[in-house]
Amino acid sequence: MLIETEATPNPATLKFLPGRTVMDAGTRDFATPEEAEASPLAETLFGLGDVTGVFFGRDFVSVTVAPGVDWVHVKPDVLAVLLDHFSANMPLFRQGSAAGIAVPSADAAFTDNPEDADIVAQIRELIETRVRPAVANDGGDIVYRGFDQGKVYLQMQGACSGCPSSSATLKQGIEQLLKYYVPEVTEVRAV
Predict the structure, then answer these.
(1) Which of 4, 33, 41, 133 could lock 17 by a disulfide, CB 3.0 to 4.6 Å apart?
(2) What is the pLDDT of residues 135-170, one digit of tens each?
(3) What is the DSSP letter of 38?
(4) What pTM value is reported for the model?
(5) For residue 97, how many C-alpha atoms fall within 13 Å in the half-sphere facing its CB?
(6) Exposure class string for 64-87: b at 16+ Cβ within 10 A, else e
(7) What is the DSSP letter of 144?
(8) Strand, helix or coil at 16?
């Protein structure tokens, strides 16, 4: 089995492509070792010591290391963990119950106004068809969180979460795109 690697705009993050589907649907972002307990793979990657983030995309795994850590020292260990995991066809997640699932309170703060349903639908469509595929190419994801009085709230995940160029991507790329196609959009903000 060959696992390809790609650089991302975030120098602390590498994108690993195992040549197979990682997530059948959706994505999963692990920002702490505690969150990673849901996945044997993410937990093992955090166990390497220098890993500060793991992100599962459709066909890739992005791994973020602590500031100042040189990928030359960590990459062989990450590749070995990924190779062992995917070669053995191990499960991505542990069996569990819904008891441990909670919706973060930050999500509840954004409730779309029903009068904005058409605008929200346009925004979501643009994010799904134009923004998310481009962001996934860079080893991350972007999630719609809300629309309120012209402001669109988005959450960056994976390689995009701590990327030095994420604010430029948000303002110069995504904000301009949304303003062009949806005139009601006045600003895009990260949450």
Answers:
(1) 4
(2) 777 777 888 889 998 999 988 887 666 666 667 677
(3) G
(4) 0.70
(5) 1
(6) bbeeeeebeebeebbeebbeebbe
(7) E
(8) strand
